[in-house]
Amino acid sequence: MNQKRNGGAASIVKRLVLAAPSSVEQVVAPTAIERALSVYQQLQERDQSVLLQARKILTQHIYGMIDRGENDEHRLTVGGLAQLKAIERDHAIKSAQDSAKRT
Fold first, then answer.
1. Helices (H), ranges, the chain
2. Residues 6 or more apart whose Cβ sits within 8 Å of residue 76
3. What is the pLDDT of residues 43-64, one digit of tens each?
4. Residue at 9 is within a domain
5. pLDDT digits (tens, 9 = 90+) for 73-83
């Protein structure tokens, strides 16, 4: 019975450790997202709606990189910028103003 209790406690601790966000997720990822967004904005003036879409893309991509084991802030930033560039190359990120002009 004592082994059952210890095994139960160990599984609770294991679940807490797995559920707790790491410093990479809490500090490095947001910094990489902001840095990549800043560089993206400096390269060309963009509408606020484009920047909001870019932030969403960066967030998803950078957290995906973290899930795959990347934790270097510089690599996360560059990877996020490369993803934005690839998306722009395949199809432009549309601004709200572009949509309004067509209607």
1. 2-19, 23, 29-43, 48-67, 73-90, 96-102
2. 28, 29, 32, 36, 62, 65, 66, 70
3. 989 899 999 999 999 999 999 9
4. no
5. 999 999 999 99
Joined tokens for residue 86: 């690839």
Alpha-carbon distance of 57 to 10, in angstroms, equals 37
The reply to whether 14 falls in a domain is no
Q: 31 is written with which tokens?
A: 């910094």
Report the C-alpha gap between 11 and 78 in whole angstroms.
37
Q: Domain range holding 55?
A: 22-102
Q: Please check whether residue 53 is in contact with residue 37, taking contact to mean a CB–CB distance below 8 angstroms.
A: no
Q: Is residue 15 part of a domain?
A: no
